[in-house]
Records
---
Amino acid sequence: MDNLKIYRDSDIDKNIILGKKVAVIGYGSQGYGQSMNLKDSGCDVVLGLRAEGSSYKKAQLENFKIMEVEDALKWADIVQILIPDEVQAKVYKEQIEPNLRDGQYLMFSHGFNVHFGKIVAPKNVNVIMVAPKGPGHTVRSEYQLGKGVPTLVAVYQDFSGDSKEVALSYAWAIGGGRAGVIETNFKEETETDLFGEQAVLCGGCTALIKAGFETLVEAGYSPYMAYFEVLHELKLIVDLINQGGLADMRYSISNTAEYGDLTRGPRVVTAETKVNMKKILSEIQSGEFANEFLNELNSGAPKFNQLRKENEGHLIEKVGKEIRENFAWNSNKIIDRAKN
Ligand code: NAD
Ligand code: MG
Ligand code: MG
């Protein structure tokens, strides 16, 4: 294992990014979080958006300079591509590639398209990544608190010879250097990111919550009690894990809970689960998942939409909505769908 090298604000030359023109393409979760932070850090930032696109009006609320994607490309030194992964290759071919010039920095927050060969940049540009390890809305809310989200940087292609310094400087501007920045490569970021969200953070976690909720409700317990037990409390437990690892969480819970954790946990996530995780990882590594996802999304997403609908209709969502509307922890929302 290599030693961990962490870059902080004090290791980073912020003047690099302050001296460059930055175009952010897309104003979704990451586009919103990163461009707002860039602006507040004093960067010269323009949004590249479709005039008819869904987020144009939201961006106007924040008084951004907005251009068509092609014009933003011509204006910028750095182009941060924050449109959905499934449309990046098409937008790249049609609107970005024809407008690239020597020495521009093409930037991503996920290595997906570059690593799987869906975007192949010409040799005369730099290809880099600055990827906050958190949702875009949190990139913004942490920055506003004077903090930041741990951030990855990577260099895929270094035409100008200073790609890493430029990536670090951009990471400073979005607040990453306040938390810490580490260097990785496109392959590692892409494959670990996909695995994490599929097996643990999103897929594994939501499947675990739903199975626990259904088990209690099917046994005749109140859905409200089940919601609190398996969904609401999860955050409180994860906060302890996030701060001090599994050990701090176990330090805080009762002996009863800890004994149940150590003896029953391995019956929920079994050796068979790990076999499935390895299969999921190999589908990511081979590109099978990437192709499945792109084919599905680019052919009208019938399966995806069906699954979304089924999940939105789940009892846990109905019960949760009612509970959250009637309890007090829900002020100061990070996500306001009308604005960000
Ligand atoms: P998103 O879906 O939230 O936002 C997409 C934005 O792109 C919107 O403004 C939309 O209007 C715009 N858009 C869609 N199609 C377009 C087109 N054809 N032309 C121009 N604009 C178009 O996207 P996101 O979740 O922020 O993801 C952006 C990138 O960041 C992806 O590479 C993703 O993997 C990466 N990433 C996202 C997160 C996250 O928190 N969501 C975290 C880490 C990395
Ligand atoms: Mg991801
Ligand atoms: Mg308990």
Note: The chain has a mean pLDDT of 96.
---
Amino acid sequence: MDLFKFAAGQNFPSGSLFLVPTPIGNLADMTIRGLYILNQVDVIACEDKRHSANFLKAYGISKPLYALHEHNEKAASAHILEKLSQGERWAYISDAGTPGISDPGAILVETIKQAGFNVFPLPGPSAVVTAISGSGDFLKYGDGGFQFLGFLPTKANQRDAVIQRAQQAGVSSFFYEAPHRIESSLKAIAQLLEKDRKILIAKELTKVFEEIHVISIADLPGWMGSVKNWQGEFVIGIEGQPPTKSPSAFDENTKNWIHAIGDKVGHKELSEIVSAVTGISKKDAYKELMEIKKK
Ligand code: SAM
């Protein structure tokens, strides 16, 4: 079966940039279209030429490489723009995962788009999406919504402020953290969050020693004590706050008119009205109305 024929059916105009995600661990997690594009373009821009040369060699791809990283992104983007204006096709790959997701790529994409050229982002591996898809009902308080806050800040006071922001959010929040800071960040999380709040720890996704844990803060110190090796890559999640604890869910005024019309309208209809007026989801409105009725 010629798998590349599906990839070849897609637009491949000249003067275009293709953003190609690469594996976050298991080398087999490369899409067929990603491989097709890397085989077709004139040049592959990458974060680290040595790292990407090894990766491309594993797939038998031999192309000119051009370095674009966080320290030269502006100048490198101008160079790539000039090459696209001459009709070339380029790909950009970061060291791992999806370009532009806690990785260089944003300035490049902006430069190319502003000049009116095509940018084609391809779907593919990303650690945060991989962690979320394996997180079970970890998104339940936000109706399936979530926020991704990138890397936790390195300064302790800024990091703690971001953790507290996640604590207040109605949706679950996800972060990246560097291996040498993971232990101290988890300690801070254990100190700042309430005991029944859940967190997600996803380690070494798609690799041999892959782990995904969802544990309450009460159990976190015990779990940390059992960890023998902190080496590895981590995604951290903080569960959103339950709707009834949300300070903005129902203010006094909302509660007053709910009481005034509560007996005259069915529970489902009332949830819909409350949702339309307050902006909170119908599901959360329904749950909170149940709580009010119990009181
Ligand atoms: N662009 C990448 C993406 O789309 O996921 C992220 C690159 S960022 C520089 C690297 C961070 O992503 C790591 O410090 C870690 O927090 C997370 N990460 C990357 N690979 C991972 C893996 N296999 N398991 C868990 N986290 C990972």
Note: Strands lie at 16-19, 43-46, 65-67, 89-93, 118-121, 146-151, 172-177, 198-203, 211-216, 234-238.
